[in-house]
Amino acid sequence: xxxxxxxxxxxxxxxxxxxxxxxxxxxxxxxxxxxxxxxxxxxxxxxxxxxxxxxxxxxxxxxxxxxxxxxxxxxxxxxxxxxxxxxxxxxxxxxxxxxxxxxxxxxxxxxxxxxxxxxxxxxxxxxxxxxxxxxxxxxxxxxxxxxxxxxxxxxxxxxxxxxxxxxxxxxxxxxxxxxxxxxxxxxxxxxxxxxxxxxxxxxxxxxxxxxxxxxxxxxxxxxxxxxxxxxxxxxxxxxxxxxxxxxxxxxxxxxxxxxx
Length: 260
Ligand code: NAP
Known about the structure:
By secondary structure, the chain is of the alpha/beta class. The chain has a single domain, classed as NAD(P)-binding Rossmann-like Domain (Rossmann fold, 3-Layer(aba) Sandwich), CATH 3.40.50. It contains eight helices and seven strands, in the order αβαβαβαβαβαβααβ. The chain has a seven-stranded parallel beta sheet, with helices on both faces. The protein is globular, with a radius of gyration of 17 Å. The mean pLDDT is 95. NADP nicotinamide-adenine-dinucleotide phosphate is lined by residues 19-20, 22-26, 44-45, 69-72, 97-101, 120, 124, 147, 149, 195, 197-198, 200-203.
């Protein structure tokens, strides 16, 4: 444990908030940062399930705090930031990760479905980034990671049935670039990660129609789905001092999908 803490780019003692962290990539991020000595605030809509992640962090000798937070609700986001500061005294890292992805043909997509996806996947990122950046600006340091997707339009990959999702992820890419500019004077770095097909509860290979799975894998040069740990490893690099000159970037982690 001590060896791992020392090798992770000055992360020991830092404080991170991770949204959507009860499972999937957010949970892998939480456990990975905790192993590097980061105190992790595990936020999601179920506090009980966040507590299970914190229990695991503590079992491994780390520190954590479980907080119920719906990222679309400004008062809950403000409460999340307050609880993090009350418990750990500062916030060094935000991983904006909470998201939903529901397939719906564009001609059948309802206004409510559009609003819900944009509210969680884009407005939630704005609310969390702004609330946390106000604290980071006071201390003149911080790192924000926004989880986008290869399905963000800008790199040539649209996805049928995901007009609302791709619009939200394209918005995250744009938000990332602008925040990198506006927050650089406060020594806050802002980057995005664009995962490809990652085997999590959101898109579980076990639940996929084998034909859909094979169709997806046929587009991926490494011919497999990624796993949550491979995203967490990228988060670890981007929040560490080893990436100190990287801001405004979108790091694609997709097994070569976009290169195809
Ligand atoms: P996941 O396993 O479904 O985890 C996402 C978590 O966010 C869930 O616990 C979810 O809870 C939570 N969440 C949803 N709405 C929320 C809200 N309003 N407030 C707080 N938390 C909320 O999905 P994942 O695959 O780890 O995805 C993590 C991120 O990666 C997402 O932004 C996703 O769009 C992105 N991504 C995923 C893939 C992939 O292939 N898996 C690819 C590219 C990008 P509920 O389940 O109750 O909604």
